[in-house]
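Entry 14. Structure prediction run on the chain below.
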Amino acid sequence: MDAFFAAVEQKRRPELIGKPVIIGGGGDPTKRGVVSTASYEARKFGVHSAMPLRTAYKLCPHGIFLPVDYEEYSRVSKKVKNILRGFSPVMEDVGIDEAFLDITNASEDPEEIARKIKERIREELELACSIGIAENKLLAKIASDLQKPDGLTIIREGDIEKVIWPLPVRKLWGVGPKTEAYLKSININTIGELAAMPLENLIGYLGNSYGNYLYEASRGIDESPLVTHWEPKSSSREVTFQRDTNDWQTIARTLASLTKEVTEDIKQSRYLCKTVTLKIRFEDFKTYTRARTMDEFTDSNEIIRKAVFEALGKIELKKKVRLIGVRLSNLKKA
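Output returned:
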């Protein structure tokens, strides 16, 4: 989906169409928070996701800042996914605004299927999406990003050299800012330059597993299947305080609220947990975690909350707290 959160807001408030809309946190750029999505009008000013709201405000002071309405975005996302399932039952849901479809056995032409998907989403939801078509997930993901917004890109087997190799290495799935910076330090800027690197050299630089992955990915090779179902490994919530605090009541109240939220999460998914982990980040950005494994699996808020506060008792609160979080792990089906 194209600038999904911003697009949903522009749909329900047409006066925002064509304006720089920035979604993040509580929607107040003077407070802590990060950008979740920015409209394409805002992106022209250098605003992008994961950027601090304060930075976004400096770049785009006339932007319209709105709070995240996750409930509404989830509601619209379900409608999008229902449309997609009508075209193929083999779907991997990879986030609120993204999915892979396997259309290998479809009788229609892939490009025609893509056009019909775009039409349905536009007609029923008044939203735009970008679609990439390729023989594997890696190439389809790259293709979907090449002609945003409202794009449709096909990458065929013979297009690797011409289309993929000139792209920056960051376009490869799994290459983040740190890997990109390291690759640049050894004079690898494009996917093509990465593909020209001998396998033994890549393994020497990046280790066996990652070196092999990049060697294959740079050649457009990806054997990973679509994952249509998976079991959750954990459920977590965290909060960054608007102002660093050492007020015990504020910390305790927030912790109890977060614990209730993650407990409700596992209850709704019909899971029990055995391990709780507390995370605290202080004003100097030093971060500590403390885990507590309970005697039995449970979804009891009272028992889990008790374990969380026991974990809190293992950390000295001598400095002001910036962030606090709770994670439930070691899950099993109820």
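The mean pLDDT is 95.
Filed with the rest of this week's runs.
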